[in-house]
Amino acid sequence: MSEKIVCVDVGLKRIGVAFGFKGIAVPLSPILRKNRNQAASDLAKILNEYDAKILVVGVPKGGASEDEMRRRIEHFISLVNFSGDIVYQNEAFSSFEASDLANDGRDGKFDSISAMIILKRYLKIT
């Protein structure tokens, strides 16, 4: 796939961000979330800066809170000024996998590594 892709792992404090192009996925600096409007604006800037055509959004599958989490994530994404394609991708166990690659999650790298894992999953199915 030769389109530029940004992937996000939406959290309450941070939003992990990864960039993909030509089958390669790399983590970017996470968005520190002060409020949803600021976070949506920051994400729109990243999408524009990287000339993304696709936004992949991690969503939890399974579990008691799946519907509520998906609703919250979809609402947040609706605030982002983006005219490209939006794809929702299962994020199950991405944080667990990211913990094997990042030692400390407090600096936000953990969140972006999780986004990179979600993006790699998406790239495998397209």
Automatic annotation (TrEMBL):
Which SUPFAM superfamilies does this entry report, sorted A to Z? Ribonuclease H-like
Give the main localization category: cytoplasm
Q: What is this protein called?
A: Putative pre-16S rRNA nuclease
Task: Indicate the family of this protein.
Answer: Belongs to the YqgF HJR family.
According to the UniProt entry, what is the EC number of this protein? 3.1.-.-
Q: Which UniProt keywords apply?
A: Cytoplasm, Hydrolase, Nuclease, Ribosome biogenesis
General function of this protein: Could be a nuclease involved in processing of the 5'-end of pre-16S rRNA.
Q: Which domain of life is it from?
A: Bacteria
Q: Which NCBIfam families match?
A: PRK00109.2-2, RNAse_H_YqgF
Q: Which residues form the YqgF/RNase H-like domain?
A: 3-98
Localization, per the record, is: Cytoplasm
What the entry lists under InterPro entries is as follows: RNaseH-like_sf (IPR012337), YqgF (IPR005227), YqgF/RNaseH-like_dom (IPR006641), YqgF/RNaseH-like_dom_sf (IPR037027)
